[in-house]
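Dear colleagues,

As part of the handover before I leave the project, I'm documenting each prediction I ran so the next person doesn't have to rerun anything. This entry is a single chain, and its sequence is reproduced below.
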Amino acid sequence: MSAYIIVNCNIKDAEKFAEYGSKAGATFAPYGGKLIKRGKLQGTLSGTPGASVTAVFEFSDADAVQAWYQSDDYQALLPLRSEACDMNISVYVD
């Protein structure tokens, strides 16, 4: 059963966000994670505006997501992530 993470964030520091993104991207491969789609908010048709950037990543299963998130490599990036943006990460399975 595939698992997906939906990442929604509002950028606080564009330079630090770029650094975080390049470093975080390298942490996915050992856990089979791959970027499916990334986009910037263009507008809101209904409701409260959402995050400025959203990305979707696919993993083989929820265990792989947990292993990636708890990995030392990703956990080391959390202080940089906090400086770069406000982020929500949700896990979905099909």
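The beta strands are 3-11, 34-40, 53-59, 85-93. The chain has one domain: 3-42+51-93.

All the best with the project,
I.
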